Each structure stands twice: as C-alpha cells, then as structure tokens.
Amino acid sequence: MNDTVPVTPVGGEINSSAPLSVAVTIPPYQEFAEAIGGKRVEVMVMVPPGASPHTYEPTPGQLRALSKTPLYLAVGTGIEFEDSWMDSLTSVNRDMQVVDTSLGITLLSTETEDTATADDTIRYDPHVWLSPANARIIARNIADAYIAYAPRDAAYFEAQFKTYDENLASLDEGIKDTFAGTAKNTVLVYHPAWGYYADQYELDMTSVEEDGKEPSPASLKAIITSAEEAGIPVIFASPESPTRNAEAIADEIGGSVVYISPLAENYTENLVEVTDAFRKWAV
C-alpha cells in the first residue's frame, strides 16, 4: 500500500438499527463491499461511474458524508485519487478506519527502460481488481475488515463472503474456458489497466501508454508498426479517459477503437463482457 494511505487497526460496533456506512474509492469496489456486506452495509463511492480517479476531486457533499463514515475500504495500491486525497479525506474524520484491501496481492511492476526513475523507485500497477484471483483476495480482506469491526455479525459476513467467493471462482473458470482452445492472445490497449488480467490469463498485451504516460515518438512508431505487422484490428480504450489519441492510432493501423472500462460498477458482468471482447479481437 502506498505510504500516503494510512492503515488503522479496525474494531468497532454497528448500530443494529442502521447499516454500517462504508466508503470505497471506485465503482468496482462497490460490488465487492455490497456483496459481502449485504443488508448490513451502505456503500458510498468516492469516484462515481464515468469519472477518472486520475482527475476526480471529492465534492463538499461527499466530504460531509465521509465525516460520518467509520470505515474506508481503500484500493491501497497507489491509485491516484487515494494518493492525492486520502490525507484530506481522513482529516474530516479522524476516527475513520482505513483498510488496505490489497494486502496479500503480489503487485506487478510497471517499470521499463523508458520509465525507470532516477531514484530507483519501483512503480507498481494499481489496477489489482481486474484479476479475478486478486478480487478474491480483496473480497477476503473486506470480509475480515467487516468481521473485525463488527464481530457480532461475523457469521453473516462470512456467509456472504463464501457466496461471493464462489461467484468469483466461477467467473475465473468461465474466463479460462473462453480462452481455451485458441492460440490468439495478442491485443493492443491504450491505457495499461489490464496487466493483472493479462498476467492471469496469459495474454500478450501491448499498452500504448507507458506507466500511464504518453509514449515517446519512437515507441509509438514501433507499436504501430508491430500492430500493423500482426494484423491487430482494434485498440482497446477506456471510456473514462480521453480517446482522441486512441482513435488516431486506430486510423494508423486501419482499425477501430473498442471501449472497455476498468471502472465499471457491475464488476462481474463487466469482466465477462471484456473477456468476450478480448476473445473476439485477439490475433
């Protein structure tokens, strides 16, 4: 977890007459939090659907709501919104407990020869939730946080977790089945959000952006040439980010842009749709 995101030991009580107020950073975590918390939680998403965690700023209304929120389930991997705003978020509620839901996940480095920093700081891909295997770890961490905060409801949260964990396991198996029996596994993406997914399902994925930054002219030329030679027909882009450059690259390769969101609120359904798109357009 990035050093700017505090980790506080959990422990508290839920008023039996009201659900536990929980905050999460991005929409996919709303599914995680609600699936495990069920009727015992009420979830607020800080970065709403359609917004980007790279640029979004919390509203005064969100800060007021956060002042009464006892539990924040953080992504914990250096996602920009948390790095930029967590100190401000915790300042409105010093009693709010911030939980790093990425604990136990092996992070992937985003460093290349072109993006390595002079101070040898290692940068990691923050998009851990896009691997179902990681999502199961995140879900376990959320369940543990709920149980630690409200031990009287431990059996309920554990049962909710078990059901959702089985759903994630089924999602994983379904994705594996989708890619089974095909040698086509090469795709081109604009933003490097899908590295954990590609790692889990052994996709040969090229990202135009390098560590979230625009590529050098030489790198861009090499990517376009490679895509043309491979016959890649589409570039995948995120609808939450500017798409003009992706559209320009699509023109260069004689292809088109296919939009897939790493931030969709319907996490399970979204990964099924993204998998179908990767399977359809991979070469």
Automatic annotation (TrEMBL):
InterPro entries: AdhesinB (IPR006129), Bact_metal-bind_prot9 (IPR050492), ZnuA-like (IPR006127). It comes from the Archaea. The lineage of its organism: Archaea, Methanobacteriati, Methanobacteriota, Stenosarchaea group, Methanomicrobia. GO terms for biological process: cell adhesion; metal ion transport. Belongs to the bacterial solute-binding protein 9 family. This is Zinc ABC transporter substrate-binding protein. One of its GO terms (molecular function) is metal ion binding. Keywords: Signal, Transport. It holds the Pfam family ZnuA.
